[in-house]
Fold this protein.
Amino acid sequence: MLEVARTKIARLAKRAGLKLKMTHEREGQSLRRRAGGYAHAKQFKRLRQVVRRQRTILGVLLREVQRKMTTLAQAAQDQLRPWLERAERIRSQRLHDKNKLYALHAPEVECISKGKARKPYEFGVKVSLAVAHKSGLIVGARSFPGNPFDGHTLAQQLEQTGNLLQDLGVKPKTAVVDLGYRGVDCDIAPVELIHRGKYKSLNAQQRRWLKRRQAIEPTIGHTKHDHRMDKCWLKGSEGDALHAVLCAAGFNIRWLLRALRRQLQPGGLKNLYFAVIAVWAACLAASMAGLSGLMGADADPSRQPLLRTA
């Protein structure tokens, strides 16, 4: 991050017409290679020395640009100032600081802890998915900036799902979730909450529903790897929210095409083709029409609610 910030500031200063005494380009590239090698070899003492030098040369560059930018026009200064503030924030932040900057070009990116040995952390924005219990269609996709607790996102996710399904006359009645959503029964009433912590008090049908909760995990994987939710190319919080909805729509379209292929095989019901197309067109039109009001503010889905709709 320090070398990325140095390169960006040097490029912007050159574009603005500032003549810098030194850009430290050769030393910066060398330090970046050394830092990667020391980190891989777990030579942390040498790594700290390299990072300290990277901070020093970035600070030297920032102070020189700040001194010389006063000769520029006001418009050029306004264009440089946000990048200087982000670079200074990167230079001054430390390991255990709160609200750190993880991406120079996207300040909204957060560090999301997954708790898995293979990939303990992901960087992006938390996204919640709601999946129909029987069909597996995605009936809700919403981004949540600020990395909120999973249980605090369920009410907003159910609200979006209800809005998307209102034209079909369908409302979610039961939410089958994991243990990360315990204790939010009052927030989502009258929707019934089912999770593993209530297993002894569940009836036979509810226990069967609970066995289907993990069906959302492959859905998360497919949306991330097959439908590009793992990387968002749209700008800002609004772009993250729109990206989540579009990835979910792509998943549903592919699901629909597979269903049509099965039904249009010899002996299939061709009338189902037109019925499904009509229903899907209505759902897509309704969701796109109300998209601006349904999007949350600003890709890692974790502990998502699995819905049963009726």
